[in-house]
Design goal:
22% strand; 38% helix; 2 domains; five-stranded mixed β-sheet; 8 helices; alpha/beta; 228 residues; Methyltransferase, Cobalt-precorrin-4 Transmethylase, Domain 2; five-stranded parallel β-sheet; Cobalt-precorrin-4 Transmethylase, domain 1
């Protein structure tokens, strides 16, 4: 059985008992970052007084090795072991590894389930204060300037059809200022909200026009909510 397990996006106190129970009962853990999983285990023991199986195995499972390790993981599943997939934080498959595995699991009729929980996408949308009747998640902004311009042009055309759509994207602190400047060039009146360190001690939500926000300094991965 494959379990796709959401984990807290920052604050370990957001752990659910179902998430914890699923993880400690699993034979195999596929972790985007095994070090993060060790921290997660500490939280599980502190909050629920649960410990993993003594023979539990954790496997590093990130984007670059996803295809390479697919046969090994399918072997575990076909031998009826319980396998849990977790990302570094939040919900797996949402701009994180796992798609190839789930696609193959569906093809082979291997049972699987999703254990829901935190997502930085929906959390940031709620924090933004923007009306969220309709929204669209576009994943990570492209790294190349021309690709980002193409994406924003496409979103602009979509916005002309339906002005109620709010857009959500991930961006790194190294590229955010340039991305905001490009957004400002295309639509200086765009509304932008940047959420960072969500659920953590130094959570911050910044609002403004792209040009204003491009003059600040940021750390960590960021979630942007914006209108066009």
């Amino acid at each position: 059985m494959l379990y796709i397990v959401s984990t807290p996006i920052g604050n370990l106190d957001d752990l659910s008992y179902r998430q914890a129970r699923t993880l400690v009962d699993s034979d195999i853990i596929l972790a985007e970052d095994t070090r993060s999983y060790q921290k997660l285990l500490s939280g599980i023991e502190r909050i629920f007084n649960l410990k993993p199986k003594s023979n539990q195995k954790s496997i590093s499972y990130y984007k670059e090795v996803e295809f390479e390790k697919l046969p090994e993981v399918l072997g575990y599943l076909e031998s009826e072991q319980n396998v849990s997939l977790i990302s570094d934080a939040g919900t797996p498959l949402v701009s994180d590894p796992g798609f190839l595995l789930v696609k193959e699991v569906v093809k082979r009729n291997i049972p699987y389930d999703s254990i829901p929980g935190s997502s930085s996408v929906t959390n940031a949308l709620v924090l933004s204060g923007l009306q969220a009747k309709k929204w669209m998640f576009v994943g990570f902004f492209p790294k190349r300037r021309n690709d980002l311009i193409k994406l924003l042009n496409s979103l602009q055309k979509l916005n002309e059809i339906d002005k109620e759509i709010v857009f959500i994207a991930f961006e790194s602190s190294q590229r955010i200022n340039e991305s905001l400047r490009i957004l400002s060039e295309m639509n200086s009146s765009a509304e932008v909200v940047i959420a960072r360190e969500m659920t953590k001690k130094f959570q911050e939500v910044l609002r403004g026009k792209p040009e204003e926000l491009s003059k600040q300094t940021y750390k960590g991965e960021l979630t942007l909510i914006f209108t066009l």
